[in-house]
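Anyone up for a design puzzle?
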């Protein structure tokens, strides 16, 4: 039921809202592995993140989303990688932050209502279903690939 409502909401939201702003966190553990999540309501593996709520700063949204989706706590101020326009939803902008100093004191149980699976992956051995946008961001971080303004 939740998945059907989430999909319906994603089709209706662009017509009812103005610009949306989202955050994603590229969080690396001590071994240099990236943390990715697979949502229950859409296919693929993603950097954890979500929307910035009314009255919430970008940093507050990032901290909240990382805690909710991965039980991740930041031990350093994250660095802004870039701001990207989502061409599939042209009113949607995504800010991506990078952190190499994290901890997971209270990882959530999976699967749950939002996250089907989560884990740390070697950047050279990502799950097959890792989304193209996630792969582009990781190439920008790891290999210094040219940045693009589009998600």
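Challenge accepted. My sequence:
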């Amino acid at each position: 039921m939740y998945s059907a409502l989430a999909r319906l909401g994603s089709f209706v939201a662009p017509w009812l809202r103005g610009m949306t702003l989202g955050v994603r966190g590229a969080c690396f553990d001590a071994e240099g592995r990236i943390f990715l999540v697979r949502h229950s309501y859409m296919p693929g593996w993603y950097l954890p993140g979500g929307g910035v709520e009314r009255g919430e700063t970008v940093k507050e949204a990032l901290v909240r989303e990382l805690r909710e989706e991965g039980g991740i706590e930041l031990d350093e101020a994250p660095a802004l990688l870039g701001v990207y326009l989502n061409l599939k939803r042209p009113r949607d902008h995504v800010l991506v932050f990078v952190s190499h100093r994290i901890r997971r004191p209270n990882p959530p149980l999976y699967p749950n209502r939002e996250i089907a699976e989560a884990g740390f992956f070697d950047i050279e051995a990502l799950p097959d279903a890792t989304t193209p946008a996630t792969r582009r961001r990781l190439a920008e971080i790891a290999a210094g690939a040219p940045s693009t303004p589009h998600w």
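A detail worth pointing out: The mean pLDDT is 91.
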